[in-house]
Amino acid sequence: DVKVTQSSRYLVKRTGEKVFLECVQDMDHENMFWYRQDPGLGLRLIYFSYDVKMKEKGDIPEGYSVSREKKERFSLILESASTNQTSMYLCASSYGGVDQPQHFGDGTRLSIL
Amino acid sequence: GNSVTQMEGPVTLSEEAFLTINCTYTATGYPSLFWYVQYPGEGLQLLLKATKADDKGSNKGFEATYRKETTSFHLEKGSVQVSDSAVYFCALSVNTPLVFGKGTRLSVIA
Fold first, then answer.
1. Pairwise CA distance, residues B56 & A31, whole Å
2. Which of B30, B39, B57, B75 could serve as a FRET partner for A83 with CA atoms 20 to 30 Å apart?
């Protein structure tokens, strides 16, 4: 089975901090994705990557950046955290085209105080 | 653009009741359609999918049929269990990353 592992289940940070969320997948998938999930808004795509060192903006990239130095690892970076970035963050990966079914991690619940 | 509209929840049913969660979509092109389920405290899991008109996806007693004429992909189950309590997401893709609906929370009571 595909395993997508997010480094933290819960994280509390302060406004203005630089925050790193890490995601690792163990099935050699080309594509990796970062979403945020908010009540009443569903899942919104922040960034995705279809290859090492490649990245594409999703629907809500403002305030975020990403890094993919190795195929198995995809990092989401909040350059200067703000309270409106308090959310559940979900990482996913997929094989083949970016339209293929995705495998999700269990999420990181991030609180910015 | 591409979008998915799901019925708003929460939906509360008694055990063994029939379930329908409505999903309609708007897409430029010919989408693939998916249902994902999110159990409490977990990430999303693929429940079923369909890639062309009239295809029926099925898994764990759940079914959904790709209806191109009504642009719909409604999720159904004949007899729900308490263990089906979760949030259900409809999603589509047209050679792009998945576009998700807002989710429908289902609670099944014994």
1. 27
2. B39
Residue A101 has what pLDDT?
85
- Whether residue B103 and residue A42 make contact (CB cut-off 8 A), yes or no, is yes
Chain B residues whose CB is inside 8 A of the A98 CB are 93, 95-97
d(CA A91, CA A73): 10
CA distance A6 to chain B (A): 10
Whole-number Å distance between alpha carbons of A18 and A15: 9
Q: How far is CA A66 from CA A33, A73, B44, in A?
A: 10, 11, 21
Distance CA B59, CA B88 (A): 14
For residue A33, the chain B residue with the least C-alpha distance is: B97
Q: What are the pLDDT digits (tens) for A75-93?
A: 999 999 999 999 999 999 9
B46/A contact by beta carbon, under 8 A:
yes
What pLDDT, in 10s, does the model give residues B28-81? Answer: 888 999 999 999 988 999 999 999 999 999 999 999 999 999 999 999 999 999
Q: Do residue A92 and residue B43 have CB atoms under 8 angstroms apart?
A: yes
Give the Cα separation of B90 and B74 in Å (integer): 9
pLDDT of residue A2: 67
